[in-house]
């Protein structure tokens, strides 16, 4: 790994404390950081380097998946951290920052490779990118990269405009758009697993009846009403995480695919996704909003009673949709995608339901027959289960599904941010969203956004602590299917 200066905008913020510092610390423990690196944290508050380091240490003690021990912390890790005050709108501050970074590069004798990480609200992206460009921070003889978090735009138009502005300061290959679902270890495994010839052969409409992608959460809007009430599940989860899961699953990667191929194939999936017409959205998309209920034994209030949410809000906290990919591999296979807040349980999973080649209708217990299923558990547990329909010779050949299970122990699993920061540092863009994917995703959801806006799609209230509105079940029932594993 090359010596680099990690320039962190938003160094005193929540994301930095909860995710970025713990990820860096765990990479350090695993010896995945270069022996010499510099981190310059930036924020509005006045802080000395020492108090910044103390804050980072405290964050690690709270949020690191591995215990933050004194010996590890005091080694080169915290010593690499420096802090500078920066007012995002003040040009002089960027010039001062450049001086500080050049000084650090000299002190540590490291090449001027600079990773700019924007852990700040999207409203600051453009100003920071311009500040980096105009001050000369970006004119380095080493490499430069920009890491940004979602949301990337609010709709197609704003996403395009943001991208145009960022492109003035950074080339596409220098921009690393984080979608943290792409950092989840099981999602990364999908890239390789679908290249495995055993699965590759099955990965078509020949064998697959339908695919179900679920990301259910038990939490509600939390303290984020100001943001969430303007975006809803469609922008917060669907346009990015859910469509990324779809792309990762269906891109039909040839053996030995490199990052260019992965991104090319993902783009092809998005191009083949059958577009929805605004007037037809309600036939394929269910929108819901949680009402009061009980989640995991605790009573919770309805969305419209949450602090910061309007009592007449029409915002979606649940989406279920039926999508179709019109290409050689997937024509005719429905993809059901759903995501919601205040659901019965936290679970992100993909279920692949195979077609039923075994004809066993002469058997007495035909009704017990279940299709073969392949299940990818993404979170909170990591695992893969293959459920095979078979007969039990000891019980007169009755149907008995057989399960082949693999589960990862949670302690061994690196957090999404560890994988992503490591890759950005290495310059590996495989698990970052390319602009083409982002643009095509916004393009695909645009008719849904408009249909919601114009109230062409009913808003179904669902009881908190359930699996969403009954209409979501009806969507699958229309095609003769049901959601798997809803208890
Ligand atoms: C974020 C959304 O991107 O993902 C949150 O903004 C959501 O609303 C979160 O809670 C879910 O992530 P995870 O990793 O817990 O499934």
Automatic annotation (TrEMBL):
One of its GO terms (biological process) is pentose-phosphate shunt, oxidative branch. SUPFAM superfamilies: Glyceraldehyde-3-phosphate dehydrogenase-like, C-terminal domain, NAD(P)-binding Rossmann-fold domains. InterPro entries: G6P_DH, G6P_DH_C, G6P_DH_NAD-bd, NAD(P)-bd_dom_sf. Residues 7-188 form the Glucose-6-phosphate dehydrogenase NAD-binding domain. NADP(+) binds at residues 10-17, 44, 87-88, 150. GO terms for molecular function: glucose-6-phosphate dehydrogenase activity; NADP binding. Keywords: Carbohydrate metabolism, Glucose metabolism, NADP, Oxidoreductase. GO terms for cellular component: cytosol. The active site is at 241 (proton acceptor). Gene3D superfamilies: Dihydrodipicolinate Reductase, domain 2, NAD(P)-binding Rossmann-like Domain. Its EC number is 1.1.1.49. It comes from the Bacteria. Pathway: Carbohydrate degradation; pentose phosphate pathway; D-ribulose 5-phosphate from D-glucose 6-phosphate (oxidative stage): step 1/3. It catalyses: D-glucose 6-phosphate + NADP(+) = 6-phospho-D-glucono-1,5-lactone + NADPH + H(+). Substrate binds at residues 180, 184, 217, 236, 341, 346. Belongs to the glucose-6-phosphate dehydrogenase family. Catalyzes the oxidation of glucose 6-phosphate to 6-phosphogluconolactone. NCBIfam families: zwf (TIGR00871). This is Glucose-6-phosphate 1-dehydrogenase. It comes from Paenibacillus tianmuensis.
């Amino acid at each position: 790994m090359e010596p680099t200066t990690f320039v962190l905008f938003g160094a005193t913020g929540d994301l930095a404390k909860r995710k970025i510092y713990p990820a860096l610390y765990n990479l350090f423990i695993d010896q995945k950081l270069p022996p010499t690196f510099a981190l310059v944290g930036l924020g509005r508050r006045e802080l000395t380097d020492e108090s910044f380091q103390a804050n980072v240490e405290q964050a690690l003690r709270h949020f690191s998946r591995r215990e933050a021990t004194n010996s590890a912390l005091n080694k080169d890790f915290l010593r690499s951290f420096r802090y500078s005050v920066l007012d995002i709108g003040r040009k002089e501050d960027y010039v001062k920052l450049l001086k500080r970074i050049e000084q650090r590069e000299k002190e540590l004798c490291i090449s001027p490779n600079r990773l700019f990480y924007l852990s700040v609200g999207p409203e600051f992206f453009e100003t920071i990118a311009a500040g980096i460009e105009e001050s000369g921070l970006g004119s380095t003889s080493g490499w430069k990269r920009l890491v940004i978090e979602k949301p990337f735009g609010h709709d197609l138009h704003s996403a395009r405009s943001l991208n145009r502005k960022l492109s003035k300061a950074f080339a596409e290959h220098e921009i690393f758009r984080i979608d943290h679902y792409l950092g989840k270890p099981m999602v990364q495994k999908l890239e390789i697993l679908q290249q495995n010839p055993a699965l590759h052969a099955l990965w078509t409409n020949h064998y697959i009846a339908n695919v179900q992608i679920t990301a259910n959460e038990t939490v509600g809007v939390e303290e984020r009403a100001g943001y969430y009430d303007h975006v809803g599940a469609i922008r917060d989860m669907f346009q990015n995480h859910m469509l990324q899961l779809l792309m990762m699953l269906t891109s039909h990667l040839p053996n030995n695919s490199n990052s260019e191929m992965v991104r090319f194939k993902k783009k092809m999936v998005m191009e083949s996704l059958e577009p929805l017409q605004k007037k037809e959205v309600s036939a394929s998309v269910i929108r819901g909003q949680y009402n009061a209920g009980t989640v995991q034994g605790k009573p919770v209030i309805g969305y419209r009673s949450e602090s910061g949410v309007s009592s007449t809000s029409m915002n979606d906290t649940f989406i279920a949709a039926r999508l179709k990919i019109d290409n050689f591999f997937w024509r005719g296979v429905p993809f059901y995608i759903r995501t919601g807040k205040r659901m019965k349980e936290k679970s992100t999973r993909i279920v692949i339901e195979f077609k039923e080649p075994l004809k066993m209708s002469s058997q007495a217990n035909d009704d017990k027959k279940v299709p073969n299923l392949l299940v990818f558990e993404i979170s909170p547990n990591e695992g893969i289960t293959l459920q095979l329909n078979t007969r039990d010779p000891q019980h007169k050949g009755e149907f008995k599904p057989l399960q082949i299970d693999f589960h990862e122990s949670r302690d061994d699993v690196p957090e999404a941010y560890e994988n992503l920061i490591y890759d950005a540092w290495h310059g590996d863009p495989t698990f970052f969203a390319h602009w083409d994917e982002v643009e095509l995703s916004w393009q695909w959801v645009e008719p849904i956004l408009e249909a919601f806006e114009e109230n062409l799609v009913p808003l179904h209230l669902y009881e908190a602590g359930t699996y969403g509105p009954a209409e979501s079940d009806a969507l699958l029932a229309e095609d003769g299917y049901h959601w798997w594993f809803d208890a």
